[in-house]
Design goal:
Length: about 80
């Protein structure tokens, strides 16, 4: 028959194992929880002005015009030749 000493050690081992699994599961559960942030409307100071298409195009347009180099002229001419039938 199984001795009481063996049963006691087995029970302690099983309880320790269950405890370790519970601790690891608890840590995982706590870390996986997302902290929900209350939704807030932006204050007037925080409002971001959206740019219109015209403003964006003005930002992209170069301020100073420079003459085209010979290489750029050739590239444009080749592109135009390829477009015409």
């Amino acid at each position: 028959m199984i001795s009481k000493k063996f049963l006691k050690k087995s029970l302690i081992g099983v309880l320790i194992g269950v405890f370790v699994v519970l601790v690891i599961s608890g840590i995982y559960f706590l870390l996986s929880q997302k902290k929900s942030q209350p939704t807030q409307l932006p204050s007037p100071k925080e409002e971001v002005k959206e740019k219109t298409i015209e403003e964006t195009l003005q930002d992209l347009t170069p301020k100073e015009q420079r003459p085209l180099t010979e290489e750029e002229k050739k590239e444009i001419e080749e592109a135009l030749k390829n477009l015409t039938p």
